[in-house]
Amino acid sequence: LLINEFEHTLFGLKNDDCVWGPVHGSVGQEAVAAGAIAALRKTDKVLATHRSHHHFLAKTLHYMLPKGWNPTQDELPQTVADAVKKTMAEIMGLALGWCGGHGGSMHLRNAEAGFLGSNAIVGGGIPISIGAAYTEKFKKTGDIVVCFFGDGAVNQGSFHEALNLASLWKLPIIFLLENNLYAVGTNVEQASAIKELGIRASSYGMDGHIVDGNDPIVVLNVVRQASEGVRKGEGPCLIEAKCYRRHHHAGDQPGSAYGYRTLEEEKTWCEKEAAGCF
User: Domain Dehydrogenase E1 component, which positions (predicted)?
Assistant: First the structure.
């Protein structure tokens, strides 16, 4: 819910010309980041995409929240509120931000919290995650890496090269594919010969899972279970989380306003969003 409110506030600031550059919102996809990162250790590492406000906030807050904190009973610590403000400042290009305002919306980073960076290049974070995972294996830390990317990245060469190498070296990494059905305005069925992208895991000899990305509890349980084997050195895995990007590629207008999807489709998916169901 915090991520959802954050994104809507950000859209308002963008419409008031307070944010430079595009704003790639994560409304509709919050449950994937919240569920997956809740299953991790504070010391685990995360890499993400150009659409990564939800990943960044989830990882940063997961790192900062005290052990045993209960969202239904406890107030939000002031340090966490300050972190949210600092994230907004970074996206707005202000010096108060995590990177002094230099990273902006698409190049967020909080190394202390284990968020190694988001990347404006489609699929650009995938090969970087291989290096991060190799580092954890080499140092024998017991920590793992989670690399988030979208359906638009699965046809990039870096995706196939990275999964092959990760499986070959049994790297401690979870590849988490957020399938929101659209790469800008291109439906995934127009770009992929198979509908279930998660089965691509079998091509590289790794476990694959397909989950409901609108249910944070399901995502949490699958990531938690998968991470156990990954930590033991059993090799990486690929998880496809099916979700939906409520708005257009960037900004707060619906995709239907651009003609590539219908109002009926948007209504059906919006009724499934975690922010309205939990």
Answer: 84-269
Query: Of the listed 41, 107, 224, 260, which one is catalytic?
Result: 260
Domains of the chain: total: 1
Give the active site residue among 200, 245, 246, 261: 245
Contact 216, 274 (CB under 8 A): yes
Catalytic residue among 51, 247, 249, 261: 249
CATH code for the domain in which residue 175 is found: 3.40.50.970
Sign (positive or negative) of CA dihedral 69, 73, 79, 83 = positive
Which residues constitute the domain of residue 106? 2-277
Residue 244 designated active-site: no
Is there a contact between 59 and 32 (Cβ–Cβ < 8 Å)?
A: no
Local mean pLDDT, 10-residue blocks, the chain (278 residues): 93 93 93 97 98 97 90 87 95 96 95 96 96 98 98 95 98 98 93 93 97 96 98 97 94 93 92 72
What are the structure tokens assigned to 142, written together? 């017991």
Mark whether 245 is an active-site residue. yes
Task: Give 169's DSSP letter.
Answer: T
